[in-house]
TrEMBL record:
One GO MF term: acyltransferase activity, transferring groups other than amino-acyl groups
Coiled coil: none
Domain Acyltransferase stretches: 20-347
Native organism: Modestobacter versicolor
Transmembrane segments: 44-65, 85-104, 171-190, 236-255, 261-284, 305-325, 331-351
Protein name: Acyltransferase
Length: 417
């Protein structure tokens, strides 16, 4: 399925990788890993998942807009295929490992974890957690795959909504604003401490974080960079400071932060807006101190190549290490570091990268078979297939008809993952 070429916000004329955003991926996954290892030391470290959601919305939406600019349409089948090849091979490896271990591991370490592995690879872990689809404890080892389910459920519908917005530009602004604010309304109406876990895991109460990233992509395609920076640049370091305070748990309180009213009502939206400010500055101003720090090659390379594998493997390895050596923190921590240092690079080299290369070959073959002519500039700027691109938005040389994009107003300023 594809769309005819009309009515979308002017996409970028080209794209190139943003090392700073890759570096931010590293910071985000580090927050999550440390939080899972030492939850009492980094109480709000799961904020890294919130940051990931905003990054994802920005990058994926920019890619869709660039495809629309280059080809005049959004090819839905190709989009879903790209998502499958990007995520599923490594996820299937980790989920399959857990499934096999649930059958073979002695001492009952992974017994009963099969339903969790199946929920993970079917992108339904968040729903399984919300509605207790499996026996207690059976979702533990792959429970962190809830965020992958959240993303893929969102991206199942977001390209269709983007198409609809392009076809109805007169109502695009109010419709987008209503859709963006709906999760906050639902959270406020649903809020009760007993509902916190369900609010955290259901897509209709969390998709606004991904949509904030998508809104940023649309905004950067419509508004001149100088205008965006005039607003965002003064807010960069206050936003970084606020996110850091949330990560250490200060706004939540150390006793009841997983049932904190502010976090489960307006907190997700506030964190997303703070993340969007940081991303806008990293995208448009590579000379800032923050951008240069995050673009440091070891940091940005890790985020580009290994952040996904690290996220997939870390909780499985942590579960195994702490079960085998429950009373010796130094031992299980050493096991964790050594195992991840081996598993993550091997997964990237032997699973993720070959899968992307195969996907690129299949895509080229299907394009040729369909008789689709590539734009001339596409050959000159053919992207590498080694890594998924993180993009920096450039203004189109010739503006196209645009979808009105709502400007999100400032608001006053994980649960279990």
């Amino acid at each position: 399925m594809s769309t005819p070429g009309r009515g979308v916000a002017a996409p970028a004329a080209g794209h190139e990788r943003s090392p700073a955003i890759d570096g931010l991926r590293t910071v985000a996954v580090a927050l999550v890993v440390v939080f899972h290892m030492f939850p009492q030391r980094l109480v709000g470290g799961a904020v890294g998942v919130d940051v990931f959601f905003v990054i994802s919305g920005l990058v994926i939406t920019t890619t869709l807009l660039q495809e629309r600019a280059a080809t005049g349409r959004i090819r839905l089948r190709a989009f879903y295929a790209r998502r499958w090849w990007r995520l599923m091979p490594a996820l299937a490896l980790v989920g399959g490992t857990v499934l096999v271990l649930s059958l073979l591991t002695p001492r009952g370490l992974f017994v009963g974890q099969g339903p969790g592995a199946l929920a993970a690879v079917s992108y339904t872990m968040n729903l399984a957690r919300s509605y207790d689809w499996a026996a207690p404890g059976s979702l533990d080892v792959m429970g962190h795959a809830w965020s992958l389910g959240m993303e893929e459920q969102f991206y199942l519908l977001w390209p269709l909504l983007l198409i609809a917005l392009s076809l109805r530009p007169r109502i695009a602004w109010p419709l987008f604003a209503a859709i963006l604010l709906l999760p906050t309304v639902l959270r406020v109406r649903q809020w009760a401490p007993s509902e916190a876990f369900q609010i955290y895991n259901t897509p209709w109460t969390r998709y606004d974080e991904l949509l904030i990233g998508a809104a940023l992509a649309l905004l950067l395609n419509r508004v001149p960079a100088a205008a965006v920076l005039r607003f965002a640049r003064p807010l960069l370091w206050p936003a970084v400071a606020a996110l850091a305070l949330i990560a250490v748990g200060l706004p939540m309180g150390r006793a009841d932060h997983w049932t904190s009213r502010w976090y489960y009502t307006g907190g997700f939206l506030a964190i997303s807006l703070l993340s969007a400010v940081v991303l806008a500055c990293l995208t448009l101003d590579r000379t800032s101190v923050a951008a240069r720090l995050l673009a440091w090659r070891p940091v940005s390379t890790f985020g580009r190549r290994y952040s996904y594998g690290m996220y997939l493997w870390h909780y499985v390895v942590l579960y195994l290490a702490t079960a085998l050596f429950p009373g010796d923190r130094l031992v299980w921590l050493s096991v964790q570091v050594v195992a991840l240092s081996v598993l993550v690079p091997l997964t990237h080299a032997w699973v993720e990268r070959p899968a992307l290369q195969l996907a690129a070959r299949l895509s080229s073959s299907s394009t040729a078979a369909a008789g689709i002519e590539r734009p001339r500039h596409a050959e000159a700027r053919r992207p590498t297939v080694r890594e998924p691109a993180t993009v920096v938005i450039r203004r189109a040389e010739r503006p196209l008809p645009q979808v009105p994009v709502p400007v999100v107003q400032r608001v006053p300023t994980e649960a279990r993952s």
